[in-house]
Amino acid sequence: MATTLTFAEEIEYVQGGFDLCQRYNILFIADEVRMGVCRTGRFLDSDYLADDCKPDMIILGKSIIGGVYPASYILGKEEVISIVGMREIVQTFMVSPMAIAATTSILEIDDVENLTERAARLETLFIERSERSGWGALPFIDYVTARGAEFRGPSADVYNIDYLGGSLCPSA
Fold first, then answer.
1. Of residues 41 and 24, which shows the higher confidence score?
2. Which of 9, 35, 43, 99 fits as disulfide partner to 71, beta carbons 3.0 to 4.6 Å?
3. Share of the chain residues as helix, strand and coil, in percent rounded to the nearest 5
């Protein structure tokens, strides 16, 4: 089922989850496996959260390496990660020289090619073009939104519509 929350409502919802975690002493963990690392117009999707609402741990997977090599990482605040003993937590291929080389190369490409800024520009272009095209007037689209290079509209699932490369395409 598709969400009908606006971006601001999503941030507010996550802030509520963070507040509950703080209240009951529960770790607040950001799953950045899919959305992190330059895709949303910020380095991590959780970078959109307020400064006082930062994850205790961040899980990174295919997003950090762009699918080039199987690698995942768990990042966290010192007070959280320091509790975990040696070999009590394992990330996919984290100590593999190939994974380290691939991750370092991808992060370098992210910096050199300004992928975060490019994703932010794609967001602006997508929103401008969707407004110009009149998609909002179509009966099966409630609204069109983007966060960086991630494009979506909440009615897409309901009306069996897929986004392919930022374009609306009817599903087969």
1. 24
2. 99
3. 40, 15, 45
